[in-house]
Description:
Helix content is 56%, strand content 12%. The chain is an alpha/beta fold. Helix 3 (50-66) links the parallel strand 1 (43-46) and strand 2. Helix 3 packs parallel to helix 8 (165-188). The relative contact order is 0.17.
Amino acid sequence: MDYVADIKKYIELEISVLRQIDAMEINALMNAIENARKKNATIYIMGNGGSAATASHFVNDFNKGISEYIEQKFRFVCLNDNIATVMAIANDIGYDAVFEFQLRGKMKQGDLVIGISGSGNSANVLNAIELAKKEGISTAGLTGYDGGKLRKLVDIPVHVPVMSMQVTEDIHMVFDHLMMAIFYKELCGKNHLKEGCA
């Protein structure tokens, strides 16, 4: 089989979507993340499926990758990482509560809650964001497609304007690495293009 044409088409779509990304949205999220770090606040992040993997990757890149080189660390917590907790809540209460339940009684002023949902309509993510907003906690959302309910609900929307889950999830990971690389330079004094990110 010759997949070259389809490969090029996918890459061209990715490039086209990247050119449409609103840099101001990413800038707003970066400032919210940095403000949370300065306050020693917690940044909660969550997602389902591929977005769960992205949320977990964010925690690795910020809690280890950048924090290894700075005195005041990032405090990311991924709400989908403890499978026993997620399964217990899903079994006993309901899957729609797996993130919201973990936030109850734990969030503090200055914290940030980030939801990742390609469709923008994942009920468990929306429930957690709604709880955070009720308690006056800052919220952000990474979305694709038309942004769904999440894009309209959060304080800081970061949107990927494409009707493709694969490209959406690709670019959500670009956001992670883009932010990591910039913080790596600004906070650690290291150039990721010359020295490589940890």
